[in-house]
Amino acid sequence: MAKELKDLTKRSVNYSQWYNELVVKADLAEQSAVRGCMVIKPYGYAIWEKMQRQLDDMFKETGHVNAYFPLLIPKSFLSREADHVEGFAKECAVVTHYRLKNAEDGSGVVVDPEAKLEEELIIRPTSETIIWNTYKNWIQSYRDLPILCNQWANVFRWEMRTRLFLRTAEFLWQEGHTAHETREEAEEETVKMLNVYSEFAEKYMAVPVVKGVKTASERFAGALDTYTIEAMMQDGKALQSGTSHFLGQNFAKAFDVKFVNRENQLEYVWATSWGVSTRLMGALIMTHSDDNGLVLPPALAPIQVVIVPIFKGEEQLAKIDERVNPIINKLKGMGVSVKYDNADNKRPGFKFADYELKGVPVRLVLGARDLENGTIEVMRRDTLEKTTHSIEGIEEYVKDLLDEMQQNIFKKAFDFRTAHTFEVDTYEEFKEKLDKGGFVLAHWDGTPETEAQIKEETKATIRCIPLDGDKTPGKCMVTGKPSKCRVVFARSY
Amino acid sequence: MAKELKDLTKRSVNYSQWYNELVVKADLAEQSAVRGCMVIKPYGYAIWEKMQRQLDDMFKETGHVNAYFPLLIPKSFLSREADHVEGFAKECAVVTHYRLKNAEDGSGVVVDPEAKLEEELIIRPTSETIIWNTYKNWIQSYRDLPILCNQWANVFRWEMRTRLFLRTAEFLWQEGHTAHETREEAEEETVKMLNVYSEFAEKYMAVPVVKGVKTASERFAGALDTYTIEAMMQDGKALQSGTSHFLGQNFAKAFDVKFVNRENQLEYVWATSWGVSTRLMGALIMTHSDDNGLVLPPALAPIQVVIVPIFKGEEQLAKIDERVNPIINKLKGMGVSVKYDNADNKRPGFKFADYELKGVPVRLVLGARDLENGTIEVMRRDTLEKTTHSIEGIEEYVKDLLDEMQQNIFKKAFDFRTAHTFEVDTYEEFKEKLDKGGFVLAHWDGTPETEAQIKEETKATIRCIPLDGDKTPGKCMVTGKPSKCRVVFARSY
Questions:
Q1: Which residues of chain A make contact with B73, given a CB cutoff of 8 A?
Q2: Does ipTM surpass 0.85 in this model?
Q3: Which family does it belong to (chains A, B) (predicted)?
């Protein structure tokens, strides 16, 4: 696989192109032969696996279990919830037949018209309908509640404009679907999972997020409330990174799921759903990476440390190998993932550029002179700083450095967001700041009309009504009507 | 969820019904609203997750990486490999449209005829075609080889008769797809993965398997050789539990994947593919379970030990809790998964039956009198034996017991298979033994005609030509023609 390491477009030249090139050059993903569907390559998938493992642990710690529901959903299920069908019908892949047959002209296979389904099936765009149809049989009494299920799955939404990880027709995700006795319990669950997402984003992805509630026009189709975490990319645009929905009794009513409550009365079940997807890969890449390639937070890097020997001939290499082996073992024992790249068919300079491109957090370089001096060169990917250290104790140094880098990468993103977050009071100032890129905190009168007008005129949407922060009332920057608090506006992915 | 613990059909009365009931009663899986598609319930999925984790570790130890390829495949890809299309075209779910719209009569949604795909897409029944179309771009030179990718995914085959786990339209599986420089290397890989499967089956599932090669008529569609592991169920039928295919250059030719070899010549790439699926759940259930419910090997049991207190009133319970907590902590520290069921809304007898049904390997029971005596009751699920032990040191005892049970469960299955494996020399004897149930080792002349005749007359198929064991030549039991060695016949799932 030939690499073109040097000609990565600079962010300042074309941010969007930089992203598209980086995803491909760093071997994360590529377009497939099927429109809008991506191939997630091994290196990209290894990062996703680390995300999955961590999230899955967090779901289980909060009492959830995994299950699996069908890929295909009867078309009629979609119609049961009015908002839901409105939101998803226009992007459904539809299965109409169940067999192919040989073409009569021998040109290949054609759809067998005799194998037509009585009712068409859609590939799940999300699974509320099939899951609530299943829950109907699981729930009779309050004793059967809560149900706290999660599913890791692929879903499909026929998107017209796609971009690797950010918007693809097929994507991988997890979707939690919970069922509760009371409104309060369901609302608590919704917020609890939002907090799990925000903790994951900040602690593991090193991506600072704003937690908030979506306005009615940005809600999930079928939800009473949608909570979101919003991250800021380096071009100042917002990326919705995870959502948690309070579904009220909408799906219970649509699928007639009632239970006998503690007062012995029949009542509809309360629901939540929540999900994050391979879109997080996009957030991770765009938040931290630079003109040399990926920058990965150590917590999610498949390779945390790469060791590259500088040698001439097998004898020199053998000596370096001998010195490096105990370092590798010790690092592995400390839970650090290490790769020793002593291949002799690539030059060190090529290796350096390749591991930089792939965002390996720490690079250790050891040559013949280092061996004599008892030293080793350390390069940290986040700042590209190179320093020389004693080989003695290098393992502890590296372990501490990885922790420091995790903090530093987060701080850098946090400081960037702070520097690109603006409070404005007039619509004029709003437009001005918006064009610079970033989050703009402004007062809004709470009406969908004003929201739509702002979107139409500036392409900015309300990313969320933030949960934390200043709650001082004010006046809408457009209409002058009263506003309960500032909301977060931004252009977005 | 109401449980009907008592009325599980006995194996001796109706083995097939026993299986169907057990899968549902033990909360492993159930039918969904979509024909042939199952819901894997949390308890069943927890077992599958343990299998996945273990297999994934074994794949990685043998140098493989995970990736993800598209769910949908262009219809025309299937036609590229002649045998492949023959094998899969008749069971493909076909996507023909990408949008629904509201019905004009307001009755719901209908397929939008204007959103018809130019080329229909099929839901992957297996991914050789889409993956080899992708590999084409990854491979130029021998330096790009080998490629050792695995994918965890859902696949879809429109089956007419389905049974939970054993044969479902949608199932979960992993599919390895590797690309190699030489025939030898690809053949080695095929056998290596067969050995990984057999090690997994025997060591973790405690299911003894026969390793062998399929006859031409039972080969994977597009393979030059299919290797298999075959397990014997308690009704004497065979269950194909995993397959590893040597694909030769068939898919490389179909998708024009050539590489520059070490002699600087263009050559087609050599391929393998290999997979196991949620069908393994069926093998696990049917090999070990009994008339009281599931029997799970400790290595794959989501809950290895359940502790049930016998108490009257909160005061007694508090004392038992106090004594049990350090036991739980110590067991967890030893890597044993423990559940303490001190719920007071279910009687001990109900709990006992429920955990038996669910196959929890070890049950510990502790009552007020035990506390006084410093004793605890231990029940092992494989033999249903109850014994009393000192509380002191119970953790080590349980840990050893789990290891012993893992061995014992395997031995029981192994002995069963030995007792139901027969060598026969005449066709008459063959039919007689076959009706008793089991594997019949007999000579066969190597022709598809004789194989077909035997299948037609007895419903037995050649499960495999075994790799290990007696290789003495002989004469075909049907035609009297020469035979290289005995092959394994059985009726099968």
A1: 34
A2: yes
A3: Belongs to the class-II aminoacyl-tRNA synthetase family. ProS type 3 subfamily.
